[in-house]
Amino acid sequence: MSANPQLNAKGGLAHLLTLEGLPREIIVHILDTATSFVGVTEREVKKVPLLRGISVFNLFFESSTRTRTTFEIAAKRLSADVINLNISTSSTSKGESLLDTVDNLSAMQADMFVVRHAQSGAAHLIARHAGTHQHVINAGDGRHAHPTQGLLDAYTIRHYKRDFTALSVAIVGDILHSRVARSLVHALNILGTPDVRVIGPQTLLPAGVESLGVRVFHDMRKGLAGADVIVMLRLQNERMRGPLLPSAQEFNKSYGLTPEKLAVAKPDAIVMHPGPMNRGVEIDSSVADGVQSVILPQVTFGIAVRMAVMSILGGS
Amino acid sequence: MTPRIHIRGGRLVDPKHGLDAQRDLYVADARVVGAGAAPDGFRADRTIDATGLVVAPGLVDLAARLREPGLEYKATLESEMLAAVAGGVTSLACPPDTDPPLDEPGLVEMLTRRARSLNLAKVYPVGALTAKLEGERLTEMAELADHGCVAFSQADAPITDTQVLWRALQYAATFGFAVWLRPEDPHLARNGVAHDGDFATRLGLPGIPAIAETVAVATILELVRATGTRVHLCRLSTADGVAMVRAAKRDRMPVTCDVAAHHLHLSDLDIGYFDSHAHVVPPFRSGRDRDALRAGVADGTIDAVCSDHTPVDEDAKQTPFGESEPGATGLELLLPLALKWGEEARVPLAGALAAVTSSPARVLGIDAGHLGVGAPGDVCVFDPAAHFRVAADTLRSQGKNTPYLGYELPGVVRFTLVRGDVRYEARGERR
Amino acid sequence: MQLPDAETLCADLVRQLRGHVTPDTGMVGIHTGGAWLAERLHQELAFAVPLGLLDISFYRDDYRKSGLHKSVRASKIPFDVNGRHLLLVDDVLYTGRTVRAAMNELFDYGRPESIRLVALVDRGERQLPICPQFVGTGLTVPKGSMLRLDRDEAGRLTLRLDA
Question: Apex CA C156: angle with CA C151 and CA C160, to 5°?
Fold first, then answer.
């Protein structure tokens, strides 16, 4: 099989496509660099000149205001020029292939592509065709990966809990369709987390999920017992009623995070959610707004983590 | 009048007649006229020196898409027939999923006439089982058979209405026609693009579970039990599917099956970093499934290895995996992949060749795939010790899409004879 | 070659700076060597304003060539830069590029009233128009070698020459 397409000949990061297979040192380097950027976001002039003259193209084939905005803020804080392209499905149905779109943009001197696409592997395809000085950041490809989210989740956990090697982390909800879950599992395993759990009904767990390095629970109370970190996943509307689940109410009953279920975790357990939340479905408002919730800080860390990723790539 | 050809000094391997020996072959009037000793009065117009080479029956391929009519931008009859003879394939069955599908005698006639005029490999069309392959209305099977269809199939189009499938099988059985079906439950396979297992989970690719195949195999076998129709199951991909066929054969059911050559060596792991060349139907499954397929060929449960040749233009592969068009080019890889399997499984050469000559000929019900006296003069002369590098510039097919790009495979065809005439000769060879 | 004693130079800088430090003066050290030196000076001179530390990784001019530095520390300026007289501290003054980067970064925190540069050693070979106001000593160093400040566990400062 070919070499890791994310790494350049010197073993440095050329693209960020997935956390799977990344050396631990690279992930730790990103998290450490992000710490410095948190400081930058807290001062008056929130910019540093690192990426001045660099063009970052946000290529979003799947629309997402939140993620696109955080990448845009991150790039601008690095003094990069940002171009946003929202390529709705109706444009692509006009016949221009993904690679043709990328080639046209490369001709406009794009240095960095931030790509979100509904198909798993889209970022890998673009990276394969990228020029030598171009960098691709995967902002989410199908169900496969959302590496910056995994990194910011790891950053959040490190911020509050310090040592991964002593943690129990529970991820709850629609693992089957979740690139966030996959990326977080990879990050946690690479960082040495001994106990990673996934909790959900059978219909929402992918085949062979244990092979990712997780323990499977169908009973949420058993799965949350003694957990240090609880990550709630968003349940998409279209999945709430159909062959996978009967209703949002039944999902909430068995798999929603209520104060009563939260109580079986450690008393100082933190509650995370990649957002946006479905209040009352996967998470009760009282928990989302409660003292154990770190959902809002996750957003700040997200900007710093993305600044770290772009600055490391931009200099490689 | 075809020339009289003497193929001298080669190792003659004829699996049907249990022959593997140093023996000369004599061809005249489009037929094999002698093996070993020359027939009386035979004077060769041409002598081919086959020293160090294997002289085998021309390969019989149960599935090769030629893309005509209708899909000529992917490949043409001419390019693919040249690829066939370059791969040593002298007879091939082509599935009905052309555009329009082979559901009318006129279309079948056009195809067979075009193929005959090219005078390369022999084409045996498999007719559509239902009109437009839509799974609702039966085709005029008797009429299609009169025009040359050797069997009836749905190609990759599902029949969701089991009533229709049952009646189609009954109707075919009335005339003794064989029905070829690729077993896949369309609901279980819906939206899937890769084997539903650890690797697809890792890659976030929607999965096609093994039960999509086994549920369909079970349904088909039950219908065969009820109708007695001769059914050929196309492109098995699961260990459990092979086991079900093995049991059915033990019960003496009129069932045969094949596997695509590319499934004998690869598993879902070969998708690697989303290589669309590894996007095929049925998907590459687990290592355990692949091993069961190999064992199935070895013990005869799987009757034939075919190429499942499906040329796809590069544009349709240079897309994200799930959007890419599935399929792999295969005519030129059928022999090498069969040989590679035989070497690794430690099966004698005759056994490996049987899977691509005499056995598929038996499934098709044609006189081919053997070199007995009187057999059609379809011969493949190849070098078993030479290797060929799979690359866009070494493949003659218009389809360069294969997960084997970059592989070095054993078995280089030097000469292919069809109807007693040399229709392919490797460049640089003049023997 | 014989290197001067860093502790002696440091004590000399303390003497030079005494009288130039007011209750409002701010001190900023540049990681890593400048930060160690600044920590010592800050303590010895009993500053009222807490010490600031800068990591200039995000302001370097060699980012395109060498990439982002392997270990980036957080910069921290725990006082208002606006209108303040600052003492900027580095261990070895060489091309002047580090100081240029540090000044750019300081101006992103606010507009200081003045910046005066303190260096333990000035090895010359400036590539930019930068000059120090307080220097321990001048020193000529063989071309291509790097002069660095070390600090041991006990806090003792020494100069080191790397070929």
Answer: 50
Residue C63: list chain A partners with CB under 8 A.
50, 314-315
Chain A partners within 8 Å of B201 (Cβ):
206-209, 211-212
For residues A211 and B200, the answer to whether their CB atoms sit within 8 Å is no
How many angstroms separate the CA of residue A155 from the nearest CA in chain B? 22
Beta strands at B151-153 and B122-128: parallel, antiparallel or unpaired: parallel
H helix and E strand count, chain B: 12, 20
Sign of the four-CA dihedral A69, A73, A78, A84: positive
- The radius of gyration of chain C from alpha carbons, rounded to an integer in Å, stands at 15
Which pLDDT score is estimated for A90?
Answer: 45
Give the CA dihedral A218, A224, A230, A235, nearest 10 degrees.
Answer: 30
pLDDT for A185: 98
Q: Is the C-alpha dihedral spanning A114, A118, A122, A126 positive or negative?
A: negative
Subunit partners of chain C (3 or more CB pairs within 8 A) = A
Helix (H, G, I), strand (E, B) or coil at A212: helix
Reference C57, options B175, B3, B148, A40; nearest CA is A40
The predicted-structure confidence for A146-193, as pLDDT tens digits, reads as follows: 999 999 999 999 999 999 999 999 999 999 999 999 999 999 999 999
Contact C134, C117 (CB under 8 A): yes
Which amino acid is located at C70 in the chain?
Answer: K
Burial B87-120 (b: 16+ CB within 10 A, else e): bbbbbbbbbbbbeebbbbbebbeebbebbeebeb
Identify the sign of the CA torsion A251, A254, A259, A263: negative
A7 touches chain B (CB under 8 A): no
Q: Do chains B and C touch (3 or more CB pairs under 8 A)?
A: no
How many residues can be counted in chain B? 431
Q: How far apart are CA B279 and CA B327, in angstroms?
A: 6
Compute the distance between CA of residue C83 and CA of residue A187 in angstroms, rounded to an integer: 45
Kindly give, in sequence order, each residue whose CB lies less than 8 Å from that of residue C112, ignoring residues fewer than 6 positions away: C26, C81, C82, C83, C84, C85, C86, C106
> Which one of A99, A103, A120 would you mutate to disrupt binding with B, by most B Cβ within 10 Å of its Cβ?
A120
User: Rounded mean pLDDT of B103-132?
Assistant: 96
Q: What is the mean pLDDT of chain A?
A: 92
Question: Is it true that the peptide bond before A41 is cis, omega within 30 degrees of 0?
Answer: no
Q: What is the C-alpha separation between B342 and B202, in angstroms, rounded?
A: 32
Q: Which two tokens stand for residue B307?
A: 């190429």
Angstrom CA distances, B165 to B135, B171, B226, B281, stand at 8, 10, 12, 21
Q: Return d(Cα B396, Cα B400) in angstroms, integer.
A: 8
B287 φ, ψ to 5°? -60, -35
Tokens of B357: 């000559």
* Residues of C with Cβ-Cβ distance to A12 under 8 angstroms: 67
User: And the tokens for B422?
Assistant: 């040399």
Q: Does B198 touch chain A (CB under 8 A)?
A: yes
Residue environment code for B332-350, b if the CB has 16+ CB neighbours within 10 A, otherwise e: bbbbbbbbbbbeeeebebb
d(CA A30, CA A37) in angstroms, rounded, equals: 11
How would you label A143-152 residue by residue, b for 16+ Cβ within 10 Å and e otherwise?
A: bbbbbbbbbb
Which ranges in B99-257 belong to alpha helices (H)? 105-118, 141-146, 162-175, 186-189, 198-203, 211-227, 239-250
If 0-12 CB within 10 Å is exposed, 13-18 middle and 19+ buried, where does residue B386 land?
middle
- Confidence tier at B429 by pLDDT (50, 70, 90): low
Omega within 30 of 0 (cis) for the link into B100: yes
